[in-house]
Amino acid sequence: MADTTNPILDIRNVSKAFFGIAAVKDVSLSASEGEILGLIGQNGAGKSTLMNLIGGVVQPDSGEMFFRGAPYHPRTPADANKVGIAFIHQELNLFTNLTIAENIFIDNFPRKFGLIDKTAIKQKTRDLLGAVGLDMPPDTQIERISPGERQLVEIAKALYQDAALIIFDEPTTSLTARETERLFAIMQQLRSQGKALIYISHILNDVLKLSESIAVMRDGQLMAHEPVALFSVNRMISLMVGRSIEQLYPPRTSTPSPEIVLELDGVSAAGIVENINLALHKGEVLGLFGLMGSGRTELARMIFGLESFEKGEIRVEGQSIKDPSPRNSIRNRIAFVTENRREEGLLMSIDIANNIGLVSLPTFSRTPLEIVDRRELLENAQRMAAVLQLKSGSIQQQPAKSLSGGNQQKVVIAKWLLSRPSIFIMDEPTRGIDVGAKYEIYSIINQLAVEGSGVLIISSELEELIGVCDRILVMSRGEIYGEFDRAAFQDERILRAAFRENDLPADVHHVAEGVSDDATV
What we know:
Blueprint lengths: L2 E16 L2 E13 L1 E7 L5 H8 L7 E6 L2 E2 L5 H7 L1 E4 L11 H5 L6 E2 L2 E2 L1 H14 L15 H15 L3 E5 L7 H16 L3 E5 L3 H7 L2 E6 L2 E7 L5 H9 L18 E10 L3 E9 L3 E6 L5 H9 L6 E6 L2 E2 L5 H6 L2 E4 L3 H5 L6 H6 L16 H14 L17 H13 L5 E5 L7 H16 L3 E5 L3 H7 L2 E6 L2 E7 L5 H8 L23
Parallel strand pairs: 3-10, 3-11, 6-9, 9-10, 15-20, 15-21, 18-19, 19-20
Antiparallel strand pairs: 1-2, 1-4, 4-5, 7-8, 11-12, 13-14, 13-16, 16-17, 21-22
Helix pairs in contact: 4-5
């Protein structure tokens, strides 16, 4: 039971502005022992800024903070760590060239006789990994494990710190359903030990399920901070966006054409994908679903030329792509929204306008000397920012790294929209994006299809694919194992295909074996 009379963290009238834009306005908030506080709001609502204030990444312009009753003025993240605050960030903070054990103990290695105690490190790492359900050797390099497994390493690292306050910022975005349930069990265990937890998520049902109280932010202000019993999903959405949202998905307003814009014929890479045949039609939104490790992302990267395949053929509008590469894909008007926007989608330290113009630079440098027309680029970048309702200061001055996660994703999408692609590959395009912004992204996907683009969308959220797609392909163990037309969309059926159950209904195509040469998958 939470002890609300003795908050571990107490924030009073805190404010912070960037580039003249108020990110947090006069916010008062507290988190108590034995409490899970759910914190929700749209991207740009001020959640991340508030967490950065708590974590010592930035300092408030006004207001006070108290930790365990004492004045709290963190100047660096090390100050937050020292008093007992741990973060599980949406964007993982791991060194990919180091091992799991090295990442967990990076700033506090156990020692024996003045030397690093490698035996103790390995045993403690095994214990921590066991606590989060990750069965993996401590000396495994981070670069060799999946995003979901990396998230669990972050959680193990926080457990090692034995912090009094743990802040979870979208911790389930890379986790499977089983890993998510394991995380929730860990969080409940930490709560029962008297820890204070702040849980930030756009999955509102999870917030309702886990939290004792919920705080809602909008435009930098605190709209509500009340017991969970006073909330429903509809009320949460209304407080977040300032209006009620009657439907989560826009209606499909176009029908796919018989014309094929992208075709894969027998694409294979040993141990990754096997004999992939698929056709993406003009004006179609085609979903690709599968469990972690099914090969979905790897296949998308092969299509775009980021990873190689050993045999098979990729055709764009009937023409074979002899040398798949990102450069050739861009020339063939293929766009790729990566799931890893931080490392692959953006140049984080440069301004928003230049990020939006990255792919389309040749369009703005048509002179013989190939000098970029800065004015034209800026005008088009501003137009795309307006279309996507980007929340930022000056796009000429503000760097991409200063945006919230959802607004960073909008910049990635704007970058590709500006190139007017005929094929749009989107890998987890709404990961970490709030319900209001998701609707905007879904509307963009729908409009792309209306204008004749073929959209291939990969998502771990099955409900999302059912809501936006014309057809869904299911991958399992590197193969396409099932195909579902819109009339056959049903959660249970699609999940059964993902788990490779053999008793698929008669009206569902099982395409992993015995696909005829003329089949359109």
